[in-house]
Amino acid sequence: MENKSYPVNGAGFGYRRCMSETLKEVDAAAFDFLEIAPENWMGLGGRFGKSFKRYTEQFPFMAHGLSLSIGGPTPLDMEFLKNLKGFIAEHNIRGYSEHLSYCSDDGHLYDLMPIPFTEEAVKYVAERIRTVQDVLEQRIAMENVSFYAAPGAEMTEQEFLLAVLEEADCDLLLDVNNIYVNSINHSYDAEQFLSAMPAERIMYVHIAGHYNEAEDLIVDTHGADVIDPVWHLLQKAYDQFGALPTLLERDFNIPPMPELLKEVEQIRFYQNQWKMSHAQTVA
Questions:
Q1: Contact, 87 vs 41, CB < 8 A?
Q2: Who contacts 265 (Cβ-Cβ below 8 Å, separation ≥6)?
Q3: What does the alpha-carbon distance between residue 117 and residue 150 come to, in Å, rounded to a whole number?
Q4: How far apart are CA 28 and CA 218, in angstroms?
Q5: 33: closest CA among 201, 234, 245, 271?
Q6: For the chain, where are the alpha helices, taking DSSP H only?
Q7: Quick one: pLDDT band at residue 202, thresholds 50, 70, 90?
Q8: CA triple 88-93-99, angle to 5 deg
Q9: In angstroms, rounded to a whole number, what is the distance separating the alpha carbons of residues 115 and 99?
Q10: Residue 214 pLDDT > 70, yes or no?
Q11: Residue 254 · residue 20 · CB < 8 Å
């Protein structure tokens, strides 16, 4: 896997507006790439827009969307896709991903709703993904999402995800925390799920913290430190797929930059650990 070409490499974190001043004080060697939600930055002017442009000229960026609503019942927003294509080109965004879910009907639902795990939904979603790829003129990645109910399911989450990736011929944003969260909430083996993922489709990886609502219910919040079982699952991902580019998500309770960078450094530690182990194996 170390020979695969990725749009970014190494370890990174999600860039938020609250970091517009603190980021310039960070040693550029402390991370390898950044990620934004394009909806939060498209058309933005003023000091935030200027600082963002300066950073995209300095660092590699990925875009992880929030509002495409790939599984939604309403037509795709072609005006949004046109603007997104221009945004990606203007800022040299290295790759674009979205959630395998939907978030709108006649209006925005402000949450990520689960797509029914059915053959009909596979074909519907895959066609929409192909349309997006045609409009953007690039491959996109779909993220395996956390979900709390599976209405009308005719197949498992794993079967549905793999079927969509194959039918749409798109890439995968592998969210390790979401695998762990769903494994607890829906009682499946996280490592087995991970092992079934198609290595050739993985664009990069997400890792994050979550909230324990109950012993058998975890909520994916991106608002806490990554816990040991999720770090362990990330190491399993590296064992299987190589030292994949990995991004730390933190959307709430964002700590001071030095604390945030400690977790980015933890990602790098596991990546380097895999590289050293792999080098010894090859030798």
A1: yes
A2: 11, 30
A3: 7
A4: 34
A5: 245
A6: 46-58, 78-90, 119-136, 157-168, 176-185, 190-195, 228-241, 257-282
A7: very high
A8: 85
A9: 10
A10: no
A11: no
Across the range 74-85, mean pLDDT stands at 95
User: Which amino acid is present at 220?
Assistant: D
pLDDT in tens, 173-196: 999 999 999 999 999 999 999 999
Rounded to two decimals, what is the model's pTM?
0.93
> Distance between CA atoms of 195 and 216, rounded to whole angstroms?
23
Centre a 10 Å sphere on the Cβ of residue 262 and count the other Cβ atoms it contains: 12
Amino acid at 137: E
Contact 132, 140 (CB under 8 A): yes
Question: Using CA atoms, how far apart are residues 61 and 6, in angstroms rounded to an integer?
Answer: 13
Helices 119-136 & 78-90 angle (0-180, nearest 10): 50
